[in-house]
Structure formats: structure tokens, C-alpha cells
Amino acid sequence: MNPQEHKLIYPLENSMPEPGSSIEIGPGVHWIRMPLPFALDHINLWLVRDRIEGTDGWTIIDCGITRDEVKALWESLFDNVLDGLPVLRVVVTHMHPDHIGLAHWLCERWQAPLWMSMTDYMTARLWSSGSSSSAAGGEGAYRHFHAHGMRDPESLEQIRGRSSYYKGMVPAVPDQFIRLMDGDTLEIGGSDWSVISGYGHAPEHLSLFCAEKNLLISGDMVLPRISTNVSVQNLEPLGNPLPLYLKSLDKYAGLPQDTLVLPSHGKPFVGLHERIAQQHQHHQERLDEVLQACDTPKSTFDIVPVLFKRKLDLHQMTFAMGEAIAHLHALYFEGKLKRQVQEDGLIEFVRA
């Protein structure tokens, strides 16, 4: 455990749900975990006991990626955890594959509606259609990373070949949805959950806070061990997401100190305000390091090892590149860096 983690409290200690089972962490709120085929090898999902228009059942919050293994685990949960009751709706915090991947299957399986933000719903519909190059791969991503200093032909060709990467994990999105927006109140099982929007990580990420239960389903906005990825992607090449993310974190400032945070990765924890302060400090330190590194012109590829000291596979490298651009752009839009484009298209940054 790193020193920052020592400042957080894990009420369930090392308890974690086994595959195909759940842990009830509060009245009617169940924690489940699904596998992911990445270095980040799991996602936390949530089942909340519900009642809609006189029918008892469950609300699912986030879905896992589309894999037969994950479907089989869901079927086990349906048999063993739902007490014979149906799924009444599916809520998705945002459009990343581990969160929305199986929404189409779950909604069809239970004839249940999808609830999420419009921005993320429309983005997921576009990316899963295969009609446009997504940020995960394809020609646009190839040009984006090439311009920012990735020049290894093999890596670039792999990125170019991943035009269907998103669609492979999100092959479809339900044809209809119910829109959730910042400030909405969602009643689940007789308890009110406040909808809190967040930006920088996804187009319009939604977290849910229940004052009665003192629970925050934070999605990816607040994680206990790792820093939420904040990236500039090829679809918005001059995006400036890092200030959006940090400003979004401040929207949780009014929540109670003893809120139990239910993150999408890692273990449930208490210490929301401490973790938010850590994130502000973390990014300020990274910005300082990037600014110092840019005393001489640097490409984004040059900056990646400044921010990430460990060896990265290609999947991790694409996230690292996006995050490095986000830090460079934050400094550029503050006027602390200048941006210059070389004759070969290479984008470099240098202290202003």
C-alpha cells in the first residue's frame, strides 16, 4: 500500500466478491466484480434493489465488456443473487467499453431500459456503429499519435489496425435510452440518488450519491489507487480536459466526510475529500514536471517517460500519450507553453 492509500479507510478490508457472486455493502446494494483483459483486470459493478411502478426488482449500474465469460458470470448472478426478481433498468455511468459493453445484452435480456447521459449515449452509438474511426484506433488515431511523436512503424500500424477496437467490446448499443442529467434525482428502491456530472475522463460521466445510504457510486471519477485517465484524443485534437476533470472533482466537496465511495476499480473506501486533494496535488506535481521538462522543445512522446516511469504495453501507451497531451495542453492554454509544428508535422511544446 502506498503512503496515499494509508490515508484512506477500507471498511471491507480485503473482502472482495467472488466471480458470479456479490457482497452486500449496504441495505439492498450489492457489489460485484467482472474481469477485464487488461493490466487493469477488473471492473466493479453494482446491483441495487428497486421497485418501479409496483414491480419489485433490481437496477444494474454499469455492465462490463462484451465477452462470453462476462455473460456467463451475469447469468450466475441472476440465478444466485436476484432472489427470483427481474432487472428493471440498466444505468451506465459513461460510454467506456467496460461500463457500457454489455448494456445492449442486459437491456434485451430483461426488456429493461437504459439510463445514461445523452452525450455518452450518442458517442457510444457512433463508435459502436463502425461508421467512424474512434479514439481507440484507426486512421485518425494513427495520425494523432504520429503527430505527437510516436514514430515506431509497428506500433503505429497496430493502432491503425484497431479501427474496430471499440466495436469489438461494444458491438451494439440499445436503440433507445432515458436521459440523465446533472442535478437529476433518480429514485431507486425508495431512496433518492443525486446525479453528479463529471468531465475530462468521458464526455459526460455521471456519478450517483445517496444521502440516505451515504453512498457515492463514483464510476471512474474518483478511484482509490490509480489516477483517473484524462486524455486528449484524435477526435478533439485541441481538447483541454484536465481543468475540466479537476473542476468536476470539486463538485463532490459538499458530500459528507464519511461518505462510502463505491469506485469502478479498486475497493470501496472512505476518504473522498482526502482522495480529491491527492488528485489535485498529483496533477499539479505532474504539471510542474512537464513544464520543467519543456525548457527545451519536447514532443508528447518525449513527455511520456516524465509522467510514467514504468514499462508500458501499447494499450497502456495510448492512454499515456493521451494523458501527456492533456498535461501539455493544460499548460499551453494557460500560456505557460508554446506549441510549434515542425515541417514533418511533429508537434512540440516549449516553455513560453
Summary of the model, kept short:
InterPro entries: B_lactamase-like_C (IPR048933), Metallo-B-lactamas (IPR001279), RibonucZ/Hydroxyglut_hydro (IPR036866), Sec-metab_biosynth-thioest (IPR050662), WH-like_DNA-bd_sf (IPR036388). Residues 42-265 form the Metallo-beta-lactamase domain. This protein is an alpha/beta fold.
Question: How would you sum up this structure, described in words?
Answer:
With 352 residues, the protein is an alpha/beta fold. It has one domain (5-351): Ribonuclease Z/Hydroxyacylglutathione hydrolase-like (Metallo-beta-lactamase, Chain A), CATH 3.60.15. Helix content is 34%, strand content 22%. It has eleven helices and 15 strands. The protein has helices at residues 68-80, 97-100, 103-110, 118-129, 139-147, 153-160, 165-169, 241-249, 272-293, 300-307, 314-333; strands spanning 23-26, 29-35, 42-52, 55-61, 87-91, 114-116, 178-179, 185-188, 191-198, 205-210, 215-219, 260-263, 269-270, 337-341, 347-351. The strands form three sheets. The chain has a seven-stranded mixed sheet with strand order 1-2-3-4-5-6-7. A six-stranded mixed sheet has the order 8-9-10-11-12-13. Strands 14-15 form a two-stranded antiparallel ribbon. Helix 5 packs antiparallel against helix 6, helix 9 (272-293) crosses helix 11 (314-333) and helix 10 crosses helix 11 (314-333). The longest helix has 22 residues, at 272-293. It is globular, with a radius of gyration of 20 Å. It starts with 22 loop residues before the first strand and ends with a strand.
